[in-house]
Amino acid sequence: MVRAGDGFELSLAVPGRALRAHAACADMLASVSPSSLRGHSRSTAALLSSPQPSERMFEMSGNCKIVKGLSLLGIVYGIVQIVVGAICFFGAADVAGMVGIDDPVITAQVLGVVLAVSGVFLIVTGFVGARGANRPSKLMPFIVLATIFTFVNLFGLAMIITGGSGAVWPNLLQAAVGLSAVLAASRAQKEAMER
Q1: What is the mean pLDDT of each run of 10 residues along the chain (195 residues)?
Q2: Measured in whole angstroms, how far is the alpha carbon of residue 189 from the centre of its chain?
Q3: Among 20, 94, 123, 134, which residue's beta carbon has the most beta carbons within 10 A?
């Protein structure tokens, strides 16, 4: 435990007692060697001999950088979808005037809700991916969410191709980005497991 203030206090839990050091005697505690802790738990010895935080820093691999970049892109795209969804939902009468559909107001509101839900999903997926890129062994939730995103876009693409209306390229592009994210995350997770 480190406390800030005039000085600092450092406490190490040792079975049966606690080692405390104030600013004046911190150097003495830092020079304690693990071999001098005979009879104490191994975790205390490991704590004192562990590398400094700067030495334990994780260097991000190329696959992790791809995952992080695609995750941040997903967060930005999710925010854009929420904004567009809100415009469609709350300005349904104005948006619906531009669309040639039987019940344009309800169609615009449904589109707004779908876009908002999709945006929230993308933000959650992006957040999970950005955090997972820092710890690649914990990328499985991101892989699952990105796989769901990819299959939803492929399903939408199939609906458009088999007679639905809409542009093909947005779903195709989103499916390609989702598949790239899944592949990069899977490779990053595999690299982390091999370390």
Answers
A1: 47 48 46 54 51 52 92 95 92 65 79 93 95 90 95 91 84 92 93 82
A2: 14
A3: 123
